[in-house]
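[recover] target loaded
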């Protein structure tokens, strides 16, 4: 900042300096280091004057309109995502309902069919032995499936499966 003249006729350094110098030369001699520190130093190979000239030539008042075309697209995608999420929630509810029906079917099996079959098979084997006939292979296969299903249920696989679905 250069020295400026005050209203009382004296000079001061910059805008906030004290009006104490009788002449401009006296003010500049008293502040040579401050003044040299205030001047920008040249960058690269160009001088300060060259940079100053380029700055004047550079049109800072040129304004360009920038359209953010992606904003409407993002809004559209957001609405689409909301629809997809709502559909996914509905499908998840359907899946949970199906899981409940399946668990109920397991319960009905355990409380009905399994009990009846496990009670009936020994009687069928005894009757077949008394009659001297073999138990039909289909009946033995059905009995094996019932035992396997009971194992699945007893080992908690179905309840774990149902818990996994409900945790979604």
């Amino acid at each position: 900042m250069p020295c400026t003249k005050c209203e009382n006729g004296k000079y001061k350094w910059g805008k906030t300096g004290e009006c104490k110098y009788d002449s401009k030369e006296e003010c500049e001699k008293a502040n040579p280091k401050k003044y040299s520190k205030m001047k920008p130093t040249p960058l690269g190979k160009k001088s300060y004057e060259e940079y100053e000239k380029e700055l004047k030539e550079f049109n800072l008042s040129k304004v360009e309109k920038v359209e953010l075309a992606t904003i409407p697209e993002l809004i559209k995608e957001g609405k689409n995502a909301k629809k997809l999420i709502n559909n996914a929630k509905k499908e998840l509810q359907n899946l949970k309902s199906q899981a409940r029906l399946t668990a109920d079917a397991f319960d009905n099996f355990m409380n009905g069919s399994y009990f009846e079959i496990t009670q009936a098979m020994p009687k069928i084997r005894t009757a077949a032995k008394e009659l001297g006939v073999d138990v039909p292979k289909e009946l033995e296969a059905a009995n094996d499936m019932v035992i396997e299903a009971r194992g699945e249920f007893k080992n908690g696989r179905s309840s774990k499966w149902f818990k996994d679905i409900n945790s979604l």
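[recover] notes: The first helix runs from residue 24 to 30.
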